[in-house]
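Sample 3 of the quickstart, ligand FE2/S2 (inorganic) cluster:
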Amino acid sequence: MPEIVTQGTDHPLTTVKLQTGEKVALCRCFASKNFPFCDGSHKDHPGKGPAVVEAVASAGSDD
Ligand code: FES
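Result:
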């Protein structure tokens, strides 16, 4: 389960921390009711869609 940390109020910065192997779809249309995650609401906004992010182990990592 990703850890979500939001800092600030005027221009909030949201950090989504993933474990190796986790994959999430992040909203880029700002219509999601489950922000920062995509909930499919982008279907009403042609040309918009999520960013899919997957955490993978890199060479030399302990994961
Ligand atoms: S709901 Fe915003 S990209 Fe899917």
